[in-house]
Amino acid sequence: MVPLWMYLVVSAGLFSIGAFGVLSRRNAIAILMGVELMLNASNLNLVAFWRYINPGEINGQVFAAFVFVVAAAEAAVGLALIISIYVKRHTVVAEDVNLLKW
Amino acid sequence: MISAELANNLLAVAPEILLTLVALVVILADLYLPAENKRITGYIAGLGLFGIAIATLILVPANQSLVLDNTLDTVEEQLLWGGMIRSDDLARIFRVMVIFTGGLTCLMGMGDRRLNYKAEFYAIIVIATIGASLLSAAADLVMIFIALETVSISLYILSGFIRLPVTPGQEAEQFAMRSAESGLKYFLFGSFTSAFFLYGLTLIYGFSGGHTNIYEIGQAFGAAGTEGFENVVTDTIPLLFALLMVTVGFGFKISAVPFHFWTPDVYEGAPTPVTSYISTVSKAASFAVLVRFMLAVFSPEELLDVATSSYSEWWVQLFAILSVVTMTLGNLLALVQRNIKRLIAYSSIAQAGYTLMGVAAIATTQAGDGAASVAFYMFMYVFTNTLLFAVVILFTNATNSETIADMAGLSRRSPWLALAMTLALLSLAGIPPAAGFVGKFLLFRAAVDSGLTWLAMIGVLNAIVALYYYLVVVKVMYVDRSEDDDVPINIPNPYPLVIGTSAAAVVLLGTFLITPLNSWAEAAGLDLFRLIS
Amino acid sequence: MELTWELVAFLGFAVMTLGSGLMVVTSSNLFHSVLFLMTSLFGVAGLFVLLVAPFLAAIQVLVYIGAIAVLMLFVIMLTRQVMSRPELYNQQMAGALVAAAILFLALLFVLTPLADEIGGDVAQVNAEVIAEADDAPDVDYITVEELGRAFVTRNGFVLPFEVTSILLTAAMIGAIVVAREDEA
């Protein structure tokens, strides 16, 4: 069987890729996609830990299901905000949103 | 006939059930009220929340069940809904705080003409308050995450709430654009940090051997390696890593320093009642869950059944450092601000820094003083900042400007407003008789008692620096002259109520109510140090 | 480690997830980004199946790919005129790359037995628990029924379940209010 750590490596990779996308992209929609990758990495973690560490209880899967709901709500609100700013300024480039600015 | 157990469970979430009802009433009222009366929805929400806060204060004693001979004494009995929430004094004190302040914010929203009396605004404020109220009680990773996101997502919406005006106008369009930008910025920062937070939670879930209840996790970490806990991670570094990732999420919500970048821009761009809500309710509820989470998950040895390992010293150091950086940077940057909302933003960063001092003290003062000082400080802070923002809204409505220099002559234009503003500023600066003095004193005392004297000294130095920029605003209001000196400022309804209530709270908390509130907070702190048997 | 069908499937889905993930953040065309996002999410769904969580895999496809990614596609089309900006990355691209690389290495260090080889005896980091978990206990499938019951029992997760319904209401109302153009 595939060992647990291999799943965790995939999740770590996905999380880091997502973080890179958030930090480096200019387009707000692309940043949102990076966040979605990060949330998926968390879900992968949850399900992998559930399967290998404590499969007797259901809580890991339930947690993952809740993450889906939150991700959906977050995406809906985020995209609405992006549309709102597009209507007002005709841009969706999050240049001002400079994450590393002091 | 419902069983006593079910009754206990329902009573523990009674505030949230009532809040949900208020939100529904507001949405329905909006459908059926004629356009000119839609403003009433603000009163429904605001007064409804006041009622619920008072009911929570009086009618729902935390550790008393409906059946009188059955008090909820042990931690197990306080953990309700399958361990999702813990109904204790800490939860109750923060619930009263956030629900009452949420009500004040609703009433405040009625005076901001740019919000156009939108019923959706009040409904979403009430929903955010449901999240904040549950967050104060949450005792399970799932519940913490959901409650935190309920607050955050509602606030993303509210920050970007202002629409383009129906009749075009340069200035109104400007406000709409700034609001949209602030909403997007808040959203991008917030979702990024909450992804870190969630990843940290999943690591904690895995490392603890697959638990989601924070008290079970704490016991598992403490007993790692012993019989029955073989599948718990014993190494320090992975746990510290998880701790750091979770701290990113909390740091964002309380705007502690490396995660504060969004604060000034969002505070400036969001509609002012929303800014007030972000700086009070959202921050207070996050402190409540931070205190509970740290004490439960990375417990100090006294709280552990079997203590083979304890990680509390790590986060004590972490939060002590965060506290120093946060208050120092917040105060220094506040010195150079010209916009009043940005000034309050940096001031609120500094205030979070002081409060973190209390958080660093919670593990080492066993009497629960640390947690008590955090609760007291937040209680007085939410009223002080609400008072401050209420005055700022009236002032911006009158002058159409947010610069501090334009506040000149406020004392002659409206002596009462100037007095209220002075009271709020003195409270933030920590000068008696305003409540901030007692709050700061309790924080410093908790820090000294837990051997963090150096931290308390840095705190005192910071308070002295902060005094300068608070007094500059007072000076501008009372000494400087402006052309409009003789134009009085209009105080529309329900602002007298908002300002009167919060000013009274600030004064009373600094005088007559010190002892009752402090003993309540100390009881809450002690509750946290109850062992799980 | 012998080459089992499970390992092959795992490697396939892992490459699919990470490879398309990389394409999401590097492709200059947002349409391509979204399509790669869908493949990446599909890879995660495949991993869920391998982890014996078929229900979650189904929601992953339905909710994530079917709803969220498609929603993004709509928004991209709605805001299309501004999509062809030449600069893909902001100025801190290099910093972001370094930060992400450090994050990845740190996570590897924390999460895998590889840490043993990297870290020596700094700490027996390998989180023995994780290193030894190469043989998951055999479990019965968690059925949809069990999950459903967990959502609605008092000692299960009914409280967060109800709160998510409130959260979704707020998100729905909010999204409409924020995105709708002003009423005439």
Describe it for me?
The complex is a heterotrimer of chains A (102), B (533) and C (184). By secondary structure, chain A is mainly α. Helix content of chain A is 76%, strand content 0%. Chain A is built from three helices and no strands. A two-stranded antiparallel ribbon of chain B has the order 1-2. In chain B, a hairpin with a 4-residue loop joins strand 1 and strand 2. Chain B is globular. Chain B starts with a helix and ends in a 5-residue tail after the last helix. Helix content of chain C is 70%, strand content 0%. The longest helix of chain C is centred in the middle third of the chain and has 25 residues. Chain C is mainly α. Chain C folds into three domains: 88 residues, Four Helix Bundle (Hemerythrin (Met), subunit A) (Up-down Bundle); 34 residues; 41 residues. Chains in contact: A-B, A-C, B-C. At the A-C interface, helix 1, helix 2 and helix 3 of A face helix 1, helix 2, helix 3, helix 4 and helix 6 of C.
Helix content of chain A: over 70%
Task: Using the coordinates above, name the CATH class of chain A.
Answer: Mainly Alpha
Tell me the β content of chain A. Answer: under 5%
Secondary-structure element order of chain C, N to C: HHHHHHHH
What keyword list fits this structure?
heterotrimer; A: 102 residues; mainly alpha; Helix Hairpins; 3 helices; B: 533 residues; 2 strands
Short description:
Chain A is mainly alpha-helical.
Blueprint (SSEs and pairs):
The complex is a heterotrimer of chains A (102), B (533) and C (184).
Chain A lengths: L3 H21 L3 H26 L5 H31 L13
Chain B lengths: L3 H9 L1 H19 L7 H20 L15 H4 E2 L4 E2 L2 H21 L9 H19 L3 H19 L10 H38 L6 H9 L13 H19 L7 H8 L2 H26 L14 H23 L5 H22 L7 H31 L10 H4 L1 H15 L5 H15 L3 H26 L16 H16 L3 H15 L5
Antiparallel strand pairs in B: 1-2
Helix pairs in contact in B: 2-3, 2-6, 3-5, 3-6, 5-6, 5-12, 5-15, 5-21, 6-7, 6-12, 7-8, 7-12, 8-10, 8-11, 9-12, 11-12, 11-14, 12-14, 12-15, 13-14, 13-19, 14-15, 14-18, 15-17, 15-18, 15-20, 15-21, 17-19, 17-20, 18-19, 18-20
Chain C lengths: L4 H22 L3 H21 L3 H25 L14 H19 L2 H6 L8 H5 L11 H9 L5 H22 L5
Helix pairs in contact in C: 1-2, 2-3
